[in-house]
Structures are given as structure tokens and as C-alpha cells.
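Quick start: read one record
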Amino acid sequence: MSHSYSIIACLALALASSAAASGADMDSVADSDHRNPISIKRTTDVERSILGRHREDTVKNVPAPHFVVKSANNNFLLAIGGSLNVIMGGDIGNNLYKQDGAAGSFVTNQIPVPSVAGHKGDFFINPFNGYVDLQVTGLAGTPNEISGYIKVGTNGINSSIVLQRAYITYRGFQAGLQLTLMQDKYACQPPTIDPEGPCGELSAAAYEIAYRSKSYGGFRFAAAIDLPSYCSSNGYYRGHDYAKYYGKQVDTSLEQYVPDIPMWVEYSFSEWNRVRFSALIRNFHYRDLVTGKDRYTTGYGLMLSGNLSPVKPLIFYYQVAYGHGIGAYLQDLAGQDFSYVPDDDNPGKMKASPMLGAVGGLTYNATSKLQFNAMFSGSRIWDVADYATAPDSGCNYKYALYGAANCFYQLNSYLQFGLEYLWGRKVTWDKGGANDSRIQAQVAFTF
């Protein structure tokens, strides 16, 4: 099933569930509701609270839009908002900005190794970091409150517009294109000007149907099914122990029958004092060309994450994730052909590669307008040297490090300024490593 059809199916399922579950409660909205006048007004704290219940309210996202179209009793709200973000800066030590798939994003797996003489710096101005979103919330304040959210924006590289989010939220369920449940939105990092963020965070958007529970004395839980996305070596054996099997021995183009299953349980002591344990189960379907059999291999991921705020202006962030075959979820390894590779000890079979991602950071809110942030991150993969160094490999990657420090000043509710320093290092299996540093500033307008 294509991604387009998958998201339509998810949205249709959510709507059908909504209609079935709400039949008995439809009278919870007064019969006179259709006579409530519609007005356009500035968003108040009440409307922000209603809209915020169904938005991706993360450290990197803007809050609810400044204006809303609403009924007098808040049973209907429509909000259109967005952001225009111009970033300018320069690389020092490498020309990461010029690499395909990087540009304004500080993608450590794209750092050229070794750096090339005459190409160890670059100045840039990048206006391709904007989006527009639309949110509609109906039956607000009733048990059948339902919300739909759509977000489109540039890709950070050129003027191409892409669909970034499209989902429906109803009674704890959320279905559509959204941030995967495996991502801890509040713990994965402090805010950055860099659209990419730390190399070791678990961060991805997925076609997903998820359920998040209410808080029970501070405890919450969640589970989901994701449309799987796999990155494999396409079945080419690169080991040295079985010379007669060298080359293609696995067909990885088979359809996948089992979704990814992320889940978590969390306990919140208070605001910004919380701990979460997450888990991910994956199943990969492929064809063994040596024996002519269909086979399956399992991947998994485990993550500990959370926040700590010993005093109100200071917030700590932490996340440590380890797993086998979780490259589609790990920031620096997403899209690389290393999650599943042939098993060197078993011709015709594949195995999930072990990998690790970690992030630590802090935020200090000096005033209501001035904020300082710092973070450090690392990502690592094992047991893929023969595949990463192959002539047709797309990326020779062993591990990477990422560091960032920045400050943001909120001039008013519309305009924000930022200044940031970034440092990254990529290390390969056989060519050594290389660094890059970036100094950049932003002017962001939100509405």
C-alpha cells in the first residue's frame, strides 16, 4: 500500500470510530448550537488550551495561532497559523551546507570525510524554513471533542512544499501522518535553530494510529502501530567467510505484513519532572535466495528519557536509546542502508544491526523573553563495516557527535531572534573522521 493510500485509510478509520463512538453522546451539544454566532478574534488562554490539547506541543513547535475563528460557546474553532524563519550563518572546517540532504540542517552523517582543501568553509542565507498549519476543533469541551490538523512547509533545502503532518485526534486516539510515538517530544532535545537537531535523538514522522491515556495519578501509557520503513543493504553479502555466497543472496523487496509497534509508560512527578520508558518491536520480511524460503527477522528498541527541573528557570533533558534495526527512527541513521544486513555466519539470512543514540541538554530561562540552551549528543552503529565500506555504499558511517549552544530572545509574540553555535564530528570505518562547526542566526516570524 502506498503512503498516500495509507494515510487516507488511517484518517478514514479515525472518522469511522468517531462516528460510532459518539452516537449516544451527540446530544451533549445543545440543539441551539448552530445559532451561536461565529467571530474572528485574538486567541485567548481558553482557546489556546483547547487547541493545544491536539497540537504537537513540543519544544521546537510554535504555540497555537494568534487568531481563531470560533463559535460563541467554543464548540467550533478554526485556527490558521505558521512561521517564516530566515537563517544565515557559515560553516568552519567543512562545507556541510553544500552536501545533498543537508543545507540548512546540520546533519552530521553528511559531513564530508576527509574534508577537501579549498572547501572548508561556506557562508549561507537560507529562507527555506517556513510552514503553514490549519487546525479545526469541534465539540470542544464535550466528551466527543475532535480535532483535525494539517501542516505543510518547505523542506529546508529549496522552495519545494511538502506535507509534514495530517492527523485526527479523538478520545485519546490520533491517526495520520504525525511524530512517531517512539519520540519523546519533551525530552529529545532543547530548542535549536538547527532544523535537524542532535544526531542521537529518536525523531521521525510516521503514518501511525496511536492511543495515549489520560493521567492516573501521574502515570500515563501509550501504544501505536506504525507503517514500517526499512533501510537494508538490499541483500548483498559483503562478508569474507563464505566466498561462494558473495553478492546477492537475499531479496528485500518483499511486502511487509507486520506494522512497527511502539509503546511507552511514563510517570510525571510535576511539570518538567518526569521519566518515560519506551519500547519498539519491528519485524522484517525478506526472501532467502540460498534456500528459496521466505524469512523474518525481528528488531527492537528500548529508550529511557525524561526531564528534570530542580528550580523553575532550569530544565534538564535526557534520552538514551539502544536497539537492533531501529535506524528508521534514529536521527542520524534514518535513510542509511544499515538497519538490516546479511548475517555473516548464516548465508541467506539477515540480522538487525545494533545501534545507539543518546542526548543530554539543558535550558535556562533567564527571563520571560530570554532563553539559553546547550546540548550534546552521540550516535553509534556496530557490525556493519563490510557494508559501509563497500564501493556502492551510500554512507561510510561508524559514529557521530553533535554539540550545540544557543540563545533566543522573544521580542514580542510575533518575532524571535536567535544565535547558535554548532559542532559536529563524523567518524568512518576506514577513512578516519572530520569535523564541522557552524555559527548561525535566525529571525523567526510566527502568526
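Residues 1-32 have pLDDT under 50 and may be disordered.
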